[in-house]
């Protein structure tokens, strides 16, 4: 044996002792990722015990972990070596921040590159962004474990496995289930149960079939795959490809873990050794039952104690009493216990009060079981009528996910009271930044960002979700700012409560004076165009730093729309800008926002742009049409009337089509009082 052979042998032995990793780049097995040949980025990390954590519960984050050596998929047709089959399996676990509500998922990925510089978190899973999603030039295959429904990608549910080719719109997907041969049926799995599960991906290059199979970690591989799709990967992948994992979080987050991974290009991937896999960190269980105290002591003392405990328990029971009905069982996981909300908000203490709005008071809180910060809104509501529908709506609103919406987490119900639990927004509401001196004035950069964010949230509600959702109360105090000063729209759909509730008979106009479109005060019917109207008022507020109706002196009111219109007519629209900005803004953007604000404030609904158009104007992908000021009819004098019916809006019915000219200039869109 010569020296070089000996050192090679030694090296091999050392390798085999230290790493359970085969040196052939086309195959490896990692029972835990100690010393694994992985490239990590984003918030991914490897724990000391070898556990790979792709994401923690930080919001809007990405984690990637890729095998550093590219795998060669020789696709040269002249090649004697055919396009290879491959086989891989891994064990993963998803631990949501709160029970039953998660974000967003893990994707096993075969990609031409390990760098995902422009990729976005949330529904893009850290793989794509809005522009490159769906492009054939991506050359990417991903098997997604997706825990959020994204209608724009036609997701089937919030618990599915999908096969993605260059796009997050899966070529095939199925709810997470596995076939149990013993029982002869499919058994459902809950991806976000926190329990480890195993996924197998097998590609047969001769048959051009890709199979995906899932099962709980301790089961052997089911003999029927969950997904089995004919697909020619040689047409999709490139010569040298990187394999690995991508995971992302959104407004709500889950911890995403991979415990072990095996890959093979020359045969079936070896099974992982389950007993050798690293353990998951212990998790606080969120659904704790009240503990039953058992005290062993002399009989007499016991009797006394039992009585005392009984009494205390009764008092506590009363204190934390909730209203619960049979129909609510299906919403179980979305229900928070009153006790936890009580503890979270320190008993709804005044010091925890964040604000009080039209619908009730809002408190800050920290959930005792998970340390998650939340905002709890207490809405007094006596009506039993319509509660069922409303709770059903809460359940569906909870599925809304957008980075510019304040996430609704769940609810609780007591006698005469409804509690809604939201994601906590540390920076507070936009009106505080615009109108009060308690917060620093917001820079134009942030203001413009906030408007774009709110516009994209409204567009999502109006056009991008599975059904049209009207906000019905867009205003500065309903726009909250997160830690990075992104605008997030809150309180959506709450107005519906009053539709279902006691105000059923009377057409009760919900909304806020100054943001109410004229047709809304007249007919009480909200539409996407009434939301656009309110967004117009918001844009003007943000640009001018003034409320829609500015009180001057005791009785005189200045209507913001008029003020901006006057400036425009004088050819000096920028004069309307917020003096607090001190001229520090982009004149182009300011002009855009002011004019667009007026366009949205037009009296005639049909003249207002849609949210999609508003978004296009704001992000510069379309430019505002040149319109003369006399063609725009917004509003003018303020009618101090309390009666919505007083506001008669003349329609030029002769043409059948609405035209801006058909308005006299003194109709009012404003409606004082409720
Ligand atoms: C998540 O991980 C990142 C990077 O390691 C860290 O900065 C952040 O604080 C973590 N977040 C939480 C909630 O632990
Ligand atoms: C791919 O096949 C071609 C033609 O047989 C060969 O020249 C080339 O070396 C192969 N590439 C790899 C990475 O195996
Ligand atoms: C999307 O990613 C591509 C790179 O893949 C980048 O060129 C593009 O600018 C990104 N688009 C957005 C909107 O971030
Ligand atoms: C894929 O699944 C089908 C259907 O069960 C099976 O016939 C085939 O052998 C599987 N192929 C691979 C590569 O696992
Ligand atoms: C089980 O699930 C597979 C894959 O989704 C489906 O094709 C099959 O019909 C299901 N079988 C039963 C017995 O439900
Ligand atoms: C890859 O497949 C070959 C052939 O079946 C087998 O000998 C080898 O152990 C496998 N390696 C891994 C890491 O799965």
Automatic annotation (TrEMBL):
Entry-linked CDD domains: lectin_legume_LecRK_Arcelin_ConA, STKc_IRAK
Claim: RNA-binding is one of the keywords in the record: no
Key words of the record: ATP-binding, Kinase, Lectin, Membrane, Nucleotide-binding, Receptor, Serine/threonine-protein kinase, Signal, Transferase, Transmembrane, Transmembrane helix
Signal sequence segment: 1-22
Domain named Protein kinase: residues: 348-624
Localization annotation: Membrane
Matches recorded under InterPro entries: ConA-like_dom_sf, Kinase-like_dom_sf, L-type_Lectin-RKs, Legume_lectin_dom, Prot_kinase_dom, Protein_kinase_ATP_BS, Ser-Thr/Tyr_kinase_cat_dom, Ser/Thr_kinase_AS
Main location (coarse class): membrane
SUPFAM superfamilies: Concanavalin A-like lectins/glucanases, Protein kinase-like (PK-like)
Gene3D superfamilies per the UniProt record, alphabetical: 2.60.120.200, Phosphorylase Kinase, domain 1 (3.30.200.20), Transferase(Phosphotransferase) domain 1 (1.10.510.10)
Protein family membership: In the C-terminal section; belongs to the protein kinase superfamily. Ser/Thr protein kinase family.
Protein name, per record: L-type lectin-domain containing receptor kinase SIT1-like
């Amino acid at each position: 044996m010569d020296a070089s052979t000996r050192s090679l042998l030694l090296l091999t032995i050392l390798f085999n002792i230290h790493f359970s990793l085969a040196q052939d780049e086309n195959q490896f097995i990692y029972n835990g990722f100690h010393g694994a040949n992985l490239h990590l980025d984003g918030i991914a990390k490897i724990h000391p015990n070898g556990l790979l954590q792709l994401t923690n519960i930080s919001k809007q984050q990405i984690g990637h972990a890729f095998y550093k050596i590219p795998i060669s998929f020789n696709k040269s047709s002249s090649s004697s070596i055919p396009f290879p089959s491959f086989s891989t399996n891994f064990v993963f676990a998803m631990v949501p921040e709160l029970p039953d509500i998660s974000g967003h998922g893990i994707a096993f990925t075969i990609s031409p590159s390990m760098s995902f510089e422009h990729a976005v978190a949330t529904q893009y899973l850290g793989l794509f962004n809005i522009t490159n999603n769906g492009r054939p030039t991506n050359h990417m295959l991903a098997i997604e474990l997706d825990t959020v429904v994204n209608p724009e990608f036609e997701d089937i549910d919030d618990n599915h496995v999908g096969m993605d080719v260059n796009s997050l719109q899966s070529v095939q997907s199925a709810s997470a289930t596995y076939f149990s041969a013993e029982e002869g049926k499919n058994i459902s799995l809950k991806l976000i149960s926190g329990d480890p599960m195993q996924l197998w991906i097998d590609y047969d290059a001769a048959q051009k079939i890709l199979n995906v199979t899932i099962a709980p970690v301790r089961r052997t591989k089911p003999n029927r795959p969950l997904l089995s799709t004919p697909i020619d990967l040689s047409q999709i992948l490139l010569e040298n490809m990187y394999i690995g994992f991508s995971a992302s979080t959104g407004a709500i987050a889950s911890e995403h873990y991979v415990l072990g991974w095996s890959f093979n290009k020359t045969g079936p991937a070896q099974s992982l050794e389950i007993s050798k896999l690293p353990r998951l960190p212990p998790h606080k269980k969120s659904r704790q039952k009240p503990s039953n105290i058992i005290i062993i002591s002399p009989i007499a003392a016991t009797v006394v104690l039992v009585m005392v405990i009984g009494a205390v328990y009764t008092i506590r029971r009363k204190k934390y009493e909730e209203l619960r009905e049979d129909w609510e069982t299906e919403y179980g996981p979305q229900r928070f216990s009153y006790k936890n909300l009580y503890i979270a908000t320190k008993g709804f203490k005044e010091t925890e009060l964040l604000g009080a709005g039209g619908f009730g008071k809002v408190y800050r809180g920290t959930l005792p079981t998970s340390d998650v910060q939340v905002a709890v809104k207490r809405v007094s509501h006596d009506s039993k009528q319509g509660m069922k529908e409303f709770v059903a709506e809460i359940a569906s609103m909870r599925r809304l996910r957008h980075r510019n919406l304040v996430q609704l987490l769940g609810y609780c119900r007591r006698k005469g009271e409804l509690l809604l639990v939201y994601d906590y927004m540390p920076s507070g509401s936009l009106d505080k930044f615009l109108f009060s001196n308690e917060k620093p004035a917001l820079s134009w950069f942030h203001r413009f960002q906030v408007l774009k964010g709110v516009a994209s949230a409204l567009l999502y509600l109006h056009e991008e979700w599975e059904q049209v959702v009207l906000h019905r109360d867009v205003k500065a105090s309903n726009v909250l700012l997160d830690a990075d000063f992104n605008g997030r729209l809150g309180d959506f759909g709450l107005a519906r409560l009053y539709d279902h509730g006691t105000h059923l008979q009377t057409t009760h106009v919900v909304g806020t004076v100054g943001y109410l479109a004229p047709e809304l005060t007249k007919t009480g019917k909200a539409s996407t165009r009434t939301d656009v109207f309110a967004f117009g008022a918001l844009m003007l507020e943000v640009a001018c730093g003034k409320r829609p109706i500015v009180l001057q002196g005791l009785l005189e009111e200045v209507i913001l729309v008029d003020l901006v219109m006057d400036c425009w007519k004088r050819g000096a629209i920028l004069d309307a800008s917020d003096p607090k900005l001190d001229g520090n803004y982009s004149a182009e953007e300011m002009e855009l926002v002011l004019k667009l604000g007026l366009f949205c404030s037009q009296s005639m609904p049909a003249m207002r742009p849609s949210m999609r158009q508003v978004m296009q104007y704001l992000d510069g992908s379309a430019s505002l049409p040149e319109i003369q000021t006399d063609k725009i009819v917004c509003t003018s004098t303020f009618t101090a009337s309390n009666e919505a019916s007083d506001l008669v809006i003349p329609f030029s019915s002769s043409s059948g089509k609405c035209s801006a000219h058909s308005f006299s200039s003194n109709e009012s869109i404003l409606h004082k009082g409720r």
